[in-house]
Amino acid sequence: MSADQDLVAALQAQCDASPFIKFAGVHVTALDREAMRVSFRMPFKPEFERGAGTGQWHGGPIASLIDTAGCMALIAVAGRGAGTIDFRTDYLRPAGGPFLDAVGMVRRTGRTMGVADVDVFDSAGKLVATGRGSFFVEAGK
């Protein structure tokens, strides 16, 4: 396995260690260390529906995907644990479809804090939400 494959596997293991993230079905799909970017996919579940029969995603799972993608991207880049301090979500259009893709991009990482931006796309590739998070970065090794 390559170093990138090892890191993807480690990030997926961290996702699976969280009961909520595991329930949501979030999977790490790509890693670009040079661009400081990690991609994720989350499948649609009936529990994520905005209203019965609408086929649209509720905002809560979208926000959770943004939080997860930003935090995990920072962990990948910093090489240390991280936790959410604050994040915001901007919903751009209703989301539908069988899955959402998120791309977490680290904007800055420092000794104790980092910032990541996240774009969320529906299964048709349309940008449906964006977010930015500030994350506590654990002390260096």
Account of the protein in words:
The protein has a single domain, classed as Thiol Ester Dehydrase, Chain A. The protein contains 3 helices and 6 strands, in the order H-H-E-E-H-E-E-E-E. The protein has helices spanning 3-17, 19-24, 59-78; strands at residues 27-32, 37-43, 82-91, 99-109, 113-122, 127-137. Strand 1 and strand 2 (37-43) form a beta hairpin. Helix 1 (3-17) packs across helix 3 (59-78).
Kindly list the characteristics that best describe this protein:
141 residues; alpha+beta; Thiol Ester Dehydrase, Chain A; six-stranded antiparallel sheet; 3 helices; 39% strand
Rounded to an integer, what's the Rg over CA atoms? 15 Å
- What portion of residues is helical? 25-40%
Tell me the β content. Answer: 35-45%
Q: Which CATH architecture?
A: Roll
Please tally the β strands and state the result.
6
The low-confidence runs, each spanning 5 or more residues with pLDDT under 50, are none
Structural class: alpha+beta
Query: Largest sheet, described in full?
Result: 6 strands, antiparallel
Widest beta sheet: strand line-up:
1-2-4-5-6-3
Order of helices and strands: HHEEHEEEE
CATH class: Alpha Beta
Write the layout of secondary structure elements.
Blueprint: H1 3-17, H2 19-24, E1 27-32, E2 37-43, H3 59-78, E3 82-91, E4 99-109, E5 113-122, E6 127-137
GO molecular function, one term: fatty acyl-CoA hydrolase activity
Family: Belongs to the thioesterase PaaI family.
Domain Thioesterase: 55-128
